[in-house]
Design goal:
The chain is mainly beta and about 325 residues long. It is built from four helices and 13 strands. The protein has one domain: Beta Barrel (Porin).
Length: about 325
Amino acid sequence: MLKRFVLITSLLGIMRMAQAQDSTLPAAAAFDSAALLNDLLSLFDTTGVAPARSYTMLSMGVTNRLFSLRNNRLNAGQATTSTLVYTPSAGYYHKSGLSLSVGASLLDDLVKGFRATQFSITPAFDLTGSRYWQLGVSYTYFHITDRYSVYASPVQHDLYAQASYNKGWLQPGLAVGYSTGKFTEIFSFKLPGGNLLVDTGNYRLNAFSLTASVGHDFDWEAIFTKSDALSFTPTLMLNLASDSTRSLSHTIGPNLLRFLSRNRRIPRLQGKNSFRAQSVGMSLNLTYSTGKWSFMPQCYLDYYLPATDQKRLATTFAVTAGYSF
């Protein structure tokens, strides 16, 4: 009975939120449902193998992430981190490991009011029958409702895979991500004579990322009642990536564009960047489960390594509540 409790409740903390892209695009080792599930089950299951069961999960979150559902590093480079985004989602998880989830990003746009800026659909597969290995792969398609909004993701196709080995006290992991998409930006610039210059630019983004990580799960049960559980997972990450942003069309000349690009949505993603170390990060995940409910705050700190005139430290967060049946 306890194994079933942990199986259901640990997965409730998973929020697949909508968000968008980073300034250098290394793939951050993001929180994964199978990872937390196996970690909690290992405390109570002598075999280490999760019992097979299908279930549905409903969740609601609040976050400042805009660009990706699983890739923390991708979100760390977004220019706007002060806007609260509400992220309802629903998913069905089959006992085979296959799952399908849908979600939306809702926010209070200063110009257009409270509305949905994008929707997402994510088919995925997570290995849940292994005691020590955690494997998962997912693909997310983002449908953007307003391609001119600074709150919309520049990514429409987001592929992400992760693996970790959890036999020892420290748990090493590896994550690979590939993201691509098109986006449009409008920028206004006042000329010395007082005239207003407006540029509309269309871009194509491609990004490959690789993240090496090491972390540890601290787990407790019976915190306040006999049927609750708590898990805290700090993870240290090294993010490597290559990316390119190609201009498809503009209404003004390229020389002025180079000057204006510093103020755009993803200023570090101009041009082409070769594969290199992009940042180091720390992910802090806390999950509290009781009954069929789960509550999970997450925080990600990212320090940008290459030379830049932008701030190096970026912080993203998410707070999620979920219910499964």
